[in-house]
């Protein structure tokens, strides 16, 4: 009986040790500081600006990135290449239902589904939700020490943002706004 209790106690100690080790290697870190810049393109030009991250975290197993989750504050869309009335008009238009409809959809989300490391960079597969529509995307990400950087290309039409899309309005080619826009992201944690 004593031998049986010793074996059970040893199994419990081993199980707890394994659980503690697993818990120590898996961690989630909060994003402390971020920079998210956007660039949209139109026939004959482009506009750029910033948008704020409301919250975010990255998940690691040891030093290896395994996931992450982010909430983007769509109400903070800010044009940085214009001033005065033009800036105010574009900011307002981007927040309107023609584009991001921030009154009904004040946030967008991005959830990392997988992160595969190759040659020092990660290939990220994620789900991005804009205007309540979720789309699978993939993009490269680099993680160095306490900083992660990524460049994403988003097709706005996949989120029902079709205002002056050249793929839908063949007659407006000279006033078209291209479907893809870029996001450049720097995350510090």
From TrEMBL:
It comes from the Bacteria. InterPro entries: Lipid/polyisoprenoid-bd_YceI (IPR007372), TTHA0802/YceI-like_sf (IPR036761). Residues 28-188 form the Lipid/polyisoprenoid-binding YceI-like domain. Residues 1-25 form the signal peptide. Keywords: Signal. This is YceI family protein. It comes from Winogradskyella pulchriflava.
